[in-house]
Write a structure and sequence with these properties.
This protein is mainly α and 122 residues long. The protein is built from five helices and no strands. Helix 3 packs antiparallel against helix 5. The radius of gyration is 18 Å and the shape is globular. It starts with a helix and ends in a 9-residue tail after the last helix.
Length: 122
């Protein structure tokens, strides 16, 4: 929602995103049913790429290639940032969230791989 507020996509772009999300949910669900370990590992890799992308975005802001505009209110509210927060502040918080998701999904995949799961999941 934060980047929708920034990018202001057209209804066609929004529809394409929704279709992409629907396809992802179906494919991911199938993968998860077949192998939870693989599903968590794939998400971990997606999150790694997200971290890289946000790091590149931050570099572009720092280099002046992308304007460091005022943070959207939705980002300020969600991350409990000060009222004068900038886009860079929000992106740092988002990247930190993505890193946590990356680590958690790789941990889950490792748990499946090592058969180190709670009894109810074995």
């Amino acid at each position: 929602m934060i980047f929708i507020d920034i990018a202001k996509p057209s209804w066609i772009e929004r529809a394409l995103v929704l279709i992409g999300q629907a396809v992802f949910i179906v494919v991911y669900s199938l993968i998860y049913v077949l192998s939870s370990k693989v599903a968590h590992r794939v998400v971990g890799y997606f999150e790694e790429e997200a971290c890289k992308s946000y790091t590149e975005y931050l570099s572009k802001i720092d280099a002046g290639e992308v304007e460091n505009v005022a943070a959207p209110q939705i980002g300020i509210n969600y991350y409990q940032l000060p009222a004068d927060a900038m886009l860079r502040d929000v992106i740092v918080k988002i990247r930190n969230d993505e890193a946590k998701h990356r680590d958690r999904n790789h941990l889950f995949a490792d748990s499946y791989e090592n058969n180190d799961l709670p009894a109810h999941q074995q």
